[in-house]
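Sanity check

After download, print the first record. It should look like this:
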Amino acid sequence: MILLLCSGCVRSAPTPQRAADTRDAAITERRAATPVPHGRSHLGMPSSTAGPLNTHPSTPRNRFATRRIGAKPSLTEPSSPPRVGPRDIRFSRTRMDNAMRLLAEAGKFHLIIDRPMPQLVTAELLAVEPYDAILSIAEAHGIHVRYAGGAVQVTKGPPDR
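Expected structure tokens:
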């Protein structure tokens, strides 16, 4: 009786399925060989414990520096998303739309694709920003890319003005 009860409860674990078109896609972060600047963390952000905020040695450190939060924002929109650092990018027979999504995730920006793009991409780009990689791949395939409204817009046809 116990044997029947146990045999009915045991199931084999499902095997993880990987997308067939992204199995050969890889993006790796490229670390700089140069040392971190004084007063900055390894992420490029000011470090509260890493040295003085001022660069001149005779100037005392301003421990209570303030930043204006009520200042008017810039009226000009940036022409590209914020930079995240160079990456090594390798695609082997990966769908175009999936490659773009993977690059957007690596670059930490929003992506809008107007329609599915089933073209296959094979590329190897070394030490390149994810946004620049999107521009390069899109140019090679005749696809239009623009950065507007805080998102990268990818269109198959001519760009909308």
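If your output differs, re-run the checksum step. Summary of this record's structure: Residues 1-7, 47-55 have pLDDT under 50 and may be disordered.
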